[in-house]
Design a protein that fits this description.
Layout: H1 4-10, H2 22-25, E1 30-40, E2 47-54, E3 57-60, E4 67-72, E5 77-84, E6 87-95, E7 100-109, E8 112-122
Antiparallel strand pairs: 1-2, 1-8, 2-3, 4-5, 5-6, 6-7, 7-8
């Protein structure tokens, strides 16, 4: 089973993002609560996690051991990749000016592949 902290990080998950100014992306800065759901694979059930966006960069707000890199564009498109040990995930989606967001993610590790969706709510 892929570690839940790792799954959480995938929440912000997203694909390639067009390059935009940091000022536009900064409108999404702050803490976000992300709910991750699994629709395929052995990755557990729905989980809620914290993510922080700062200067258009996405960070995992949980414990150590999770390597996350991601960006939010000025139009809210988000792209994230996450690694924790042998587990990895990537996803894509969109954040909206009303403080919500949604998208999808895929990942894998020793237990096989997983996929699902995520939804986000600004929490700050």
């Amino acid at each position: 089973m892929i570690n839940l902290a790792f799954r959480a990080a995938t929440v912000a998950a997203t694909a390639a993002v067009a390059s935009v100014s940091t000022a536009n992306a900064a409108s999404f800065d702050g803490p976000w609560s992300v709910t991750i759901s699994t629709s395929r694979g052995d990755c557990g059930t729905n989980s809620l996690y914290g993510v922080v966006i700062r200067g258009g960069s996405v960070y995992y707000a949980g414990g150590a051991g999770v390597a996350m890199s991601g960006r939010v564009s000025g139009n809210g498109s988000v792209s994230v990749s996450v690694r924790q040990g042998a587990n990895h995930a990537a996803g894509s989606g969109k954040l909206y000016a009303n403080g919500t967001g949604r998208g999808s993610w895929t990942g894998g590790g020793p237990s096989g592949g997983c996929a699902g969706g995520w939804s986000a709510q600004r929490s700050g």
